[in-house]
Amino acid sequence: MVILRKPLNVIVAFAFAMLPLVGIANNPSDSTVVAHSEEVVHAEEGHHEAEPLSKKDKVDAYIQHHLQDSHDFNFFSDEAEGKHYGFSLPVILYDNGLQIFSSSKLHHGEAVAEHNGNFYKLYHSKIYKTDAEGTISYDEHHHPTNVKPLDFSITKNVVSMLFTSALLLLMFVGLAKSYKKGAIPTGFGRVLEPLIIFIRDEIAIPNIGEKKYRKFMGYLLTVFFFIWLLNLLGMTPLGINVTGNIAVTVCLALFTFVITQVSANKDYWKHIFWMPGVPVPMKIILMPIELLGTLTKPFALLIRLFANITAGHVVIMSLIAMIFVGKNLAADLPISLGLTLFISVIEVLVAFLQAFIFTMLSSLFIGMAVQDHHHDEHHSEDMHGDHDNAIV
Questions:
Q1: Phi, psi of 26, rounded to the nearest 5 degrees
Q2: In whole angstroms, what is the distance from residue 291 CA to residue 71 CA?
Q3: Of the four listed, 83, 150, 223, 325, which is most buried by Cβ atoms within 10 Å?
Q4: Of 246, 241, 23, residue with least CA distance to 126
Q5: Which of 133, 154, 175 is the last residue of a domain?
Q6: What are 288-326's pLDDT values in tens digits?
Q7: Number of folded domains in the chain?
Q8: What's this model's pTM, rounded to 2 decimal places?
Q9: Which residues pair with 84 in a beta bridge?
Q10: Domain membership of residue 193 as a residue range
Q11: Which domain-ending residue is among 154, 177, 202?
Q12: Whole-angstrom Cα distance, residue 55 to residue 217?
């Protein structure tokens, strides 16, 4: 494995290092998801009327809680005693300066946090500035009008991405060091090497070309292992759903988009703005279509990853919920567990498949942008062919 020292690799490394900061774009979820489902909002009367939750409503609220981000790791809760078991994460807000405190002060949205004379409340997945009583004001559409400070908190998804980034660093540094001992890697490097060769021979070289693929191998390897490990981490009981967060998939797709456009050659832009060999009226019509196509490609990347991972989590959680919603426990338990095990095995395959597809499509888009077009040579060959046919 060769570590390239080129500007593109530095940019990619910096971009992935900054990726955890997308926590500002995330909507941290907490027990307020359940609290919100317990309320029937009457905007005309300006008050909330609590209603008891059915089993189905509780299951829906739990699935939403599992899919979304949060300011703490909550392993399980005791509804009878109102206790939550897990650990808190740091809350970092910008409100007339940095305000840093533990998310335990918010108590899963059930309490008002006081810090430096300021009061904050977690309401419907967002942190609002409020008073000591936790008052939330509303407009005519029943949307909160309280000031919402900038949220740079280290959420559950951010911790997961930092952990995955550190794991990737350890894996590849260990692989690089093992090559110093010989041509054959040792330890866990024997598992990594076939995967790296697979990405090089089956993804990078066929789509980008043997002459230019090395420049982009760093990004392709990083995005493949990053997505794959996050997908596998999301299958653990920790309730982590990073790649099912639209903000994360948007950032990953933007990396591919920026690298593609920055690396594109003049032939790429010529085919977009003034396609050769096409009548002028058609060029004018095709120009906005081709330009729009540069935006639809990363959009397809982010939606495919987001939708597939989210759908898998929803299906598994719904199958598990059959145990609690069904009335016949003896009949529902084996069916639910059997289907859950079956879908979980499929999800292991999907975790790898989605990482592979994202990497493959990224390399395909990059290859389309950097490939060389030899119009003059093709035109010359066509002329020679016509001349030979005429002689025959």
A1: -80, 160
A2: 40
A3: 223
A4: 23
A5: 154
A6: 888 888 888 889 888 888 888 877 777 777 777 666 666
A7: 2
A8: 0.74
A9: 77
A10: 7-21+158-377
A11: 154
A12: 49
